[in-house]
Write a structure and sequence with these properties.
By secondary structure, this protein is α+β, with helices and mostly antiparallel strands. The chain contains eleven helices and 14 strands.
């Protein structure tokens, strides 16, 4: 693929895309970039205009947008992004994928980014994750992850003042909670699930399992383990895919950490192991099938550094509403074997499959940044030979609350640790901090329904 005049420019693209295309002419190319929130931004081209030999641009200002769409320094004319300097789009053709819900045959592709001088855009989330992966590989390690995605299907919510409600299923009744692992509950929304499967297959996205979670209309999709960058790309694609499948069936899909007051929150649990680059062996298991010092370092690193990266794992004010013991969410950084009350769980496995599950991460995260943060904690723990606390064999909730309870506290902790910031990249950290402070200030300027109900005539 070299020029847009080549009739076979799409030869050599991923097999799943070639199979889906089935000889059809592609009409449109969506050239996209995940922003700080994980939202897809970019450009759509007629396929005949798409070319690797010509440059396409986006302004760097897309990384200075808050979740509300406002620029973080919009009143500061000296801000470093104010000239909206261009970034060069560099399509990663290994990510080329179908857009199966589009009316005409359409391909999407994720881009890396360079400045016009050829240097990578260091603040781009995909660049941040690549930098952390490179640190692992420089140490002779190959990180492997597997995400679990929880989300809610809801009735269409067109007025933000109205509470979110479960959708009506095939029986004509709204979903009810506390139906974890119910096959009947999954079947209730079978049309949406069928479309998720169909869209995922067309894109070459691997689903390991789909289950009903504890909330009303809450679904979990487990992904197959693999390379962290590829899995981040898959979660990025999956979020869009799930939303489109829901819309096709007259409901919404939300990845908010806590969309409904009386229902559990949604997490993105991350399973992680590490292989020796030369031997391919799991470095968490020694020759006698026992846990290694590096395994202890991984767990110790998560315990030590997760507070400092919580801003990337729980990035919004709403994120902190999820951390409640009665909602099956962790409230501290305890660890235990096969213990779902702990923030760090060691799943049951054979010695070769020994891995660590981070249960703190919210589904509202940017997958690139959350995976980078998780890997950062483990990397520092292994390099510094940190020791974890004793494993908790009982109910970890009894150890009390250890997770910071607000975005403001997470901001303070994010600013404190130079080791974390060095690995993630100080320029990225500074921009991300400014975005989160901007969003916090925007939230604090709002007056909630609770305040109007309980304070208006009572204080």
């Amino acid at each position: 693929m070299s020029t847009s005049t080549d009739a076979n420019w799409y030869s050599g693209l991923p097999q799943a895309f070639t199979h889906w295309r089935n000889g059809r002419r592609i009409e449109e190319i969506e050239s996209i970039v995940p922003d700080m929130a994980g939202i897809a931004r970019g450009k759509a081209f007629p396929a005949k205009k798409f070319s690797l030999s010509s440059r396409s641009f986006l302004p760097i200002s897309i990384f200075y947008l808050s979740i509300t769409g406002t620029y973080i320094d919009e009143d500061d004319k000296s801000a470093d992004w104010i000239t909206e300097a261009d970034m060069v789009l560099k399509p990663d053709l290994t990510t080329a994928s179908a857009v199966p819900w589009a009316e005409d045959p359409t391909m999407q592709v994720i881009n890396d980014l360079e400045l016009t001088n050829g240097n990578p855009v260091s603040i781009a989330p995909r660049s941040v994750l690549k930098r952390v992966i490179a640190a692992y590989r420089d140490a002779g390690w190959e990180p492997v992850i597997a995400p679990e995605m929880e989300f809610y299907l809801t009735s269409p919510n067109v007025d933000p003042n109205d509470p979110v409600e479960p959708p009506v299923g095939r029986t004509g009744r709204k979903g009810i909670g506390r139906q974890a692992y119910s096959i009947a509950a999954v079947d209730e929304y079978g049309a949406v699930i069928d479309d998720i499967y169909a869209f995922a297959e067309a894109q070459g996205l691997g689903i390991d399992a789909i289950t009903q979670e504890g909330g009303a209309g809450q679904i979990e999709i487990n992904l197959q383990h693999g390379d962290p960058l590829k899995l981040a790309d898959q979660v990025f694609y999956f979020k869009r895919t799930i939303r489109e499948a829901a819309l096709k069936n007259n409901c919404f899909a939300t990845f908010m950490a806590k969309p409904m007051k009386y229902e559990p929150g949604s997490a993105m649990h991350i399973h992680q192991s590490v292989l020796d680059t030369k031997t391919g062996r799991n470095i968490f298991t020694d020759d006698t099938d026992r846990p290694t010092e590096l395994f202890n370092g991984m767990v110790g690193g998560l315990q030590r550094y997760m507070p400092n990266v919580l801003l990337l794992l729980a990035p919004y004010v709403n994120s902190y509403r999820r951390f409640k013991a009665d909602d099956a969410a962790p409230i501290n950084f305890e660890w235990g074997v096969d213990n779902r009350t702990a923030g760090i769980r060691i799943p049951i496995s054979g010695p070769e499959g020994r891995r660590v599950e981070n249960r703190v991460v919210g589904m509202d995260c940017n997958p690139y940044l959350a995976i980078a943060a998780n890997l950062t904690c483990g990397y520092l723990g292994m390099r510094q030979k940190l020791k974890p606390t004793s494993a908790n064999p009982g109910i970890a909730y009894d150890r009390g609350v250890g997770i910071p309870n607000s975005l403001n506290e997470a901001l303070r902790l994010f600013a404190e640790n130079s080791d974390v910031r060095t690995l993630l990249g100080e320029p990225f950290c500074k921009v991300y901090e400014r975005i989160k402070m901007h969003e916090l200030n925007e939230f604090l300027s709002e007056i909630s329904a609770w305040e109007r109900e309980h304070l208006l005539l009572s204080v």
